[in-house]
From TrEMBL:
Pfam family, one: SprT-like
Sections of the chain in a coiled coil: none
Name listed for the protein in its UniProt record: SprT-like domain-containing protein
Gene Ontology molecular-function annotations: metalloendopeptidase activity; polyubiquitin modification-dependent protein binding; single-stranded DNA binding
UniProt cross-references to InterPro entries, sorted A to Z: Spartan, SprT-like_domain
Any single biological process term in GO: DNA damage response
């Protein structure tokens, strides 16, 4: 599910009433194309003739293809930041007050919000396309494209990131649910040991003339 401004506005109003008691004043809500984060909360200050002006906003990226519940968790995550900014203590972005409120919302409302982008159990089981790249400096990275961008990324990504070797898999392992399926190339550096374990049940594939060809094993 890709976010739109009407969806974002609807979710903000709904969760403000259900979870935050209607105590979050309406602020600018934006849909961005950020490829590095699914959501963000911003609080900027400026000076005017009448004094200090506070400008707060929430942005949710349309570059990620998320399950509906996962998208809702991202929106609520940013609303927690907004709440802490208004009513909470000054602390680091994901400090004790944030974590306590996140845990309470998860427990009370059956959410699955986490410090990083989380995924629902259903999203964890959803097959994902994973490109595994060996980089010139010895590190291992992965990309997790949406289906509509798979052929283009299969063709372009090795060149974009200078990969020494690139292999592609389809996997339903929950390890990959932490990486949002992206519309734009995004490389995640991973631990080779964890990656090997996550790919144990995966199936490899190649693409020829935009046709996906599955291999018999990983």
């Amino acid at each position: 599910m890709t976010v739109t401004l009407p969806i974002l506005c609807d979710r903000f109003n709904r969760f403000n009433e259900r979870i935050f008691g209607g105590r979050l004043p309406r602020i600018p809500l934006r849909v961005s194309s950020a490829a590095t984060r699914a959501g963000s909360f911003s609080h900027r200050t400026s000076r005017s003739r009448s004094g200090i002006v506070h400008t707060r906003s929430i942005s949710i990226s349309s570059a990620f293809d998320l399950e509906p519940d996962a998208l809702d968790d991202v929106i609520i995550h940013e609303m927690i930041h907004y709440w802490i900014d208004l009513y909470g203590p000054r602390e680091t972005p994901h400090g004790p007050a944030f974590r306590a409120m996140m845990d309470e919302i998860n427990r009370t409302h059956g959410r699955n919000i986490s410090i990083r982008l989380s995924a629902t159990p259903e999203a964890s089981r959803k097959p994902r396309f994973v490109g595994v790249m060996e980089l010139p400096d010895g590190r291992t990275g992965i990309v997790v494209p949406v289906r509509s961008r798979l052929a283009a990324m299969y063709r372009d990504i090795p060149r974009l990131f200078g990969a020494v070797n690139c292999r592609w898999y389809v996997s339903s392992d929950g390890y990959f649910s932490r990486f949002p399926s992206a519309l734009k190339p995004k490389l995640y550096i991973t631990d080779p040991g964890c990656l090997k374990a996550a790919l144990a049940g995966a199936r490899g594939f190649t693409i020829s003339s935009d046709r996906l060809i599955m291999s018999s094993s990983s």
